[in-house]
Amino acid sequence: MKDCFYTALVEENKLREVELALSTTTFKKEKYIEHNIQLVRDQILECDDEVSEHFRMYVIDNGRTLDAQRLSGKGITVYPNRNVGGSGGFAYGMLLAQKQGDVTHILLMDDDVEVSPESIKRTYSLLRIVDDEYSEAFVSGAMMNFDEPDVHWEDIGYMTEAGVYRSLKPVMRMSLLHDCVTNESFEPDYDTWPDLKQQYAAWWYCCIPVSVIKKKGMPLPFFVRFDDAEYGLRCAPHIMTLNGICIWHLAFFMRYNAGVERYQTIRNGIMGQAITGVAPLTNFLKEIERSIQLELVKFNYADALLVVQGFEDFLDGPGKFMTKDFAEDRFMCANRKKEIQIPLEELKPIAETDLGIDISAAGTDEILRDIPLDTFAENALARHILKKMFVCTLNGQLGVKLKPLSGSTAVVEGVGWSCPIGKLYGADHVLAINIQQKTGVLRTRDNLRGKEIWERFKDDLERYRKNKSSIEHKYSEIRDLVTSTKFWEEYLNL
Asked: What is the pTM of this model?
């Protein structure tokens, strides 16, 4: 869209005083962060707009690799920090905003993004004109697709009943007038899907009033994942969005990381709910069980164990969780123990020797598409039985051998959410290929190992059910402490 703008007539005495601080957390992403620092310096701090006199930028350097002296100055300050993840870095920014006294709003933003300075200017202008009802609202910037710049992925998220992150709005193209209007006028159907009310603003671009932080407390020390969702769910603010307030981000499916998705996400959801009671409509156990099943039916035993470990760390209670090094240690451990995929050029001779498959001849469509179950089942009941047998036996690993539907080797997409049942059914080998990262892995059925992991989870589940009240009570007791500024000052060695 071109030549479009917003305008409003507001009485001078009704304009709000706004002092805006941008806080971005970085870990060894110099290329991105130095570019964004220069953008802010040139187009915000040195521009002729009013915002330049009411703006500052905090760069929280968790990797301690930036030249703080060279990059700081003229409203920008780099703060070296120990590696406490995104949640710790953003908490540092929140502490700074409170300590400096005059900051009214803090804008949290990822480091590995492309930001338009115009988004920051629009955010400032929007905050100046809000009425009393929206004086403590969050501003949520949209995540746009870095590779397709007009594609709008998300500006408000919600937590489903099953513990899955979802975008409140459909994917849209902001080069189309229809989609621009839809984005501003979208109305969720809360009556049909009550969990749509469990909304949050992601911290790739989220502006929070400092007054809310003082009332609701600090985030939880999760390192990465669910920190922003938990905070938004806990605060339950009005969330403001606006066309043109956004960042450009590599789509998450382009950079799947099992260490994050199968450990951090699993542990933090159920732990955050136990501490602050967020997302009351959500049963995180459903997502834990589904994730383990999803990996086991594909013979991905390493990543299934990450899910189990995340659940067990939750069951162990809040003692270790509150210690300074726990979050980083567990994150690093999960990344060491996740399934290791190798470059396709290294996988190619293995696939040819062991399976007689030339992976260079496998097209993207062949990898992504499943074989429809109606090819093998003549009606809905037969298809339902096939699916039930597949899940209940963990693809034949729990004592029942399944007859392959499409061959002994399944060639599938090598990311966690992929589960093409038609290909996987009864197979003995899985050739998983990550198309975006050009890596892959060969997995082989191990019924004994699959059964051991599943029984370990079932034992954990029984432990949880027997001690549920006690475990959740211990977590709820730490809420006031772990969300306090005192806790975070000590946690960050400030």
From this structure: 0.94
